[in-house]
């Protein structure tokens, strides 16, 4: 029974020097998830008995990141002996004692491989009863990768690393994707013979392939159908390329599901986003994290949504929203910023140059121009006049503003929180509202206007304004 058991080892202990980063390489994100997070998400669907992750470089940061998203992964610490071979060796030692099944080795920096490819590799390995099965790819530019060296019969003889390869070997375009299936017992035995005698002074996992062949074991190779999915990430250029490849995949998936995406090149959609059929996405739009968009909604151009929910037939143009909920048929933008905790009711409107935060705005309510609405509850059918501001912060604490149904505020109203406006209340233009306004009342706080006749002609004689005023009053 244990013969067919599957254990997965994810290598994530390397330093990632070529990234030149404070962040461990495997924690760099693409598509809203870390590189190693992508590998683990795929690995978790293969029905393995155990999934181990080997860590060392910045191990606490890596472990903390894994703890939240993949708490079931078993953490294994690599020691000071460097190399992928050593990483696998310590992981084998940490497997349940007596484990003698198949071991799938994945690299934490090869994030784009899909479940079918990995399952296919495991199936091929078992069907061929091989000691090891290597995933390879035929690439235009093999620089940096280990090369698959085949014998006259066309079977894999060994893998040679870039830094150890001669010119003829370097010309080989078949590369090692860094993903393999091994029989656990044979792998354990061969690793015991692997040394650090090579250009990098590391224990290479790839050395095992040549050793198995020397010991007359069968090594199979599967050439990946999707070459781009095998790409490993070692520097920022490859990081950007992988992000693009992943994004293309996500965009096409949603297009097939009935989403209109006008410009795939400038549309970025994270892996965890959900879009409904007949959503339209206009250029330069980023839909990130766990955002969801309902049918008929139009997003963009130039819009960023982060963990935001958009209702049916809503429109969000040239705006940014984080942790917000935008109701059905509501409209947002252009040029507005919905911060965390904003909810906009059905048929509501947040117009131009508006910032909102922790604000629940009711159905059919409008905040059309130049406003700040923070820590506020706004009822239904409300209209906040241009430049209405909730003054929610007194330098020490944040306070709430409560606005009842059908309230209309005059332009440039300042609502000094905590304050409450009853249903149907109104405020005059420029009102500074410091006291609660009862339902149906009109609040005014501005002194009556006084005109001082002839002031300009008298005090600004000789100016263009004075001349214009004189000409106008003479008519
Ligand atoms: C490795 C392969 C190479 C293959 C390429 C595919 C070896 C020796 N070479 O090269 O044949 O073409 O991947 O992408 O295996 N790691 C550890 N512990 C270590 C060193 C590395 O866990 O001591 C991890 C890294 O975090 C990384 C993975 O192993 O996730 C691969 O290491 P990396 O240094 O990137 O190997 P490559 O030079 O890319
Ligand atoms: Ca690599």
UniProtKB/TrEMBL annotation:
Q: Which UniProt keywords apply?
A: Acyltransferase, Cell shape, Cell wall biogenesis/degradation, Cytoplasm, Magnesium, Metal-binding, Multifunctional enzyme, Nucleotidyltransferase, Peptidoglycan synthesis, Repeat, Transferase
Predominant location: cytoplasm
* Name of this chain's protein: Bifunctional protein GlmU
Native organism: Microbacterium azadirachtae
Q: Where does acetyl-CoA bind?
A: 386, 392-393, 411, 429
Q: What is the lineage of its organism?
A: Bacteria, Bacillati, Actinomycetota, Actinomycetes, Micrococcales
Q: Which compartment or compartments is the protein found in?
A: Cytoplasm
- What does the cofactor section's free text say about binding? Binds 1 Mg(2+) ion per subunit.
EC number, UniProt record: 2.7.7.23, 2.3.1.157
